[in-house]
Automatic annotation (TrEMBL):
<dbReference type="Pfam" id="PF13144">
    <property type="entry name" value="ChapFlgA"/>
</dbReference>
<keyword id="KW-0732">Signal</keyword>
<dbReference type="GO" id="GO:0042597">
    <property type="term" value="C:periplasmic space"/>
</dbReference>
<feature type="domain" description="SAF">
    <location>
        <begin position="115"/>
        <end position="177"/>
    </location>
</feature>
<keyword id="KW-0574">Periplasm</keyword>
<keyword id="KW-1005">Bacterial flagellum biogenesis</keyword>
<dbReference type="InterPro" id="IPR013974">
    <property type="entry name" value="SAF"/>
</dbReference>
<keyword id="KW-0966">Cell projection</keyword>
<dbReference type="GO" id="GO:0044780">
    <property type="term" value="P:bacterial-type flagellum assembly"/>
</dbReference>
<feature type="signal peptide">
    <location>
        <begin position="1"/>
        <end position="24"/>
    </location>
</feature>
<dbReference type="InterPro" id="IPR017585">
    <property type="entry name" value="SAF_FlgA"/>
</dbReference>
<comment type="function">
    <text>Involved in the assembly process of the P-ring formation. It may associate with FlgF on the rod constituting a structure essential for the P-ring assembly or may act as a modulator protein for the P-ring assembly.</text>
</comment>
<keyword id="KW-0969">Cilium</keyword>
<protein>
    <recommendedName>
        <fullName>Flagella basal body P-ring formation protein FlgA</fullName>
    </recommendedName>
</protein>
<dbReference type="InterPro" id="IPR041231">
    <property type="entry name" value="FlgA_N"/>
</dbReference>
<comment type="similarity">
    <text>Belongs to the FlgA family.</text>
</comment>
<dbReference type="Pfam" id="PF17656">
    <property type="entry name" value="ChapFlgA_N"/>
</dbReference>
Length: 237
């Protein structure tokens, strides 16, 4: 009787163990539906992207067809960027698995990099002198901006608009200047004990604090000076 009971217990343990192994193997062979694939792509890209200063990043994995058949994978899927893809505004993530059946799928991903920048509060036309009330701050996707933008209004107040700017549009460095190429400027040369002024012509565009080349109208000599105001540059003697 004792032997029979022992054999019965052993048999039950073997069955229970086999069931546990089967369940473990079943759990190991994960089923990845369209949402799980999107999540894999989203998390992969998010781990690679760095947010801009004082900004944030938003990752959006494009929706896959919800009717797609869930994919089986008995191991951790390999996730990487597809060929010729990287951390641009648009990228493609490749997800690959070798077992139980080899498969590969691609997930398009959109990368947004948001940052607060100075934008136009009102429409502005060429020649307009920028005042503080003309400016506001908005969060924009800097991937859509082609040149340098501003995070402080101080540099722009008093500048001249060079091309039409729409309301809500980020103001770019190429849109404005305090000293504009080809226009007359006042050259201020000063030291601790002396200050003299001369007339000149700007040879490049510049905003406050930037170094620009100017030409002395009287001597025709060119020099580098710092933009200190509207149509004004300063040289330290």
């Amino acid at each position: 009787m004792i032997i029979r009971n022992s054999l019965l217990i052993s048999l039950l343990l073997i069955i229970a163990h086999s069931g546990s192994v089967a369940n473990a193997n079943e759990r190991k062979s994960d089923s990845l539906d369209h949402k799980a694939l999107q999540t894999l792509a989203h998390d992969f890209v998010k781990a690679q992207v760095t947010a801009p200063d004082n900004g944030r990043v938003e990752i959006v994995a494009n929706n896959l067809d919800p009717r797609m058949v869930a994919k089986k994978c008995s191991e951790q899927p390999q996730v990487s960027f597809a060929s010729n893809s990287g951390l641009d505004s648009y990228t493609t993530v490749e997800i690959e698995c070798a077992a139980p059946t080899a498969w590969r799928t691609y997930v398009p991903v959109r990368i947004y990099r948001y940052k607060p920048v100075i934008t136009a509060a009102v429409p502005m036309s060429p020649g307009h002198l920028v005042s503080e009330s003309d400016l506001t701050t908005q969060e924009v996707d800097i991937n859509r901006i082609r040149s340098n933008v501003f995070t402080s209004a101080d540099t722009l107040v008093g500048a001249r608009i060079k091309r039409r700017v729409r309301s809500g549009q980020p103001i770019e460095a190429s849109d404005t200047c305090l000293v504009c190429s080809g226009e007359k400027v006042t050259i201020v040369a000063k030291s601790k004990a002396l200050q003299i002024t001369a007339s000149g012509k700007a040879l490049a565009d510049g905003l406050k604090g930037e170094s620009v080349a100017v030409q002395n109208t009287r001597s025709n000599k060119s020099l580098e000076a710092i933009v200190t105001g509207l149509n004004e540059v300063t040289v330290q003697l």
